[in-house]
Amino acid sequence: MTPTRPVLRYHPLDTRSIGNPYCKKGYRHEMTDAQHRELATTLHSLTGMVVLSGYPCEMYDRELYPDWQRVTRKALADGARTRTEVLWLNPAAADRPQGSIFDAESAA
User: How confident is the model at residue 104 (pLDDT cuts 50, 70, 90)?
Assistant: First the structure.
């Protein structure tokens, strides 16, 4: 079981923001593919809004979160190097009645 599972299930109706579960290999504290799949199973089971952030990941796009809205933004990281950051929004977050969480940014 991933360490996040008990925390994620504690308040099932809250908005969740889950950050930086890297898919690339080579990081010191990388999750295994099985742990990524377990996290996806847990996130799909939650009610309420879920926003998952990270970097582009084919496994996330094709296998784990193909039905979630994907939003990309350019950002600076690691000494001002340009990176693409990704947010995956579950249907509850993507379809919230107030509109997209990015409406204010898009209008600017």
Answer: very low
Residues 6 or more apart whose CB falls under 8 angstroms from that of 85 comprise 53, 54, 55, 72, 73, 74, 75
| Closest of 93, 91, 87, 28 to residue 60, by C-alpha | 87
**How many domains are there within the chain?**
1
Q: Which domain holds residue 69?
A: 5-107
Residue type, 31: M
Q: What is the mean pLDDT of the chain?
A: 78
Q: What are phi and psi of 50, to 5 degrees?
A: -130, 130
Give the DSSP letter of residue 31: P
Angle at CA of residue 105, ends 59 and 22, nearest 5°? 25
Reported as a single tens digit per residue, the pLDDT across 30-63 is: 788 898 999 999 899 888 888 999 889 999 999 9
The identity of residue 11, as a single letter, is: H
Q: What is the pTM of this model?
A: 0.73
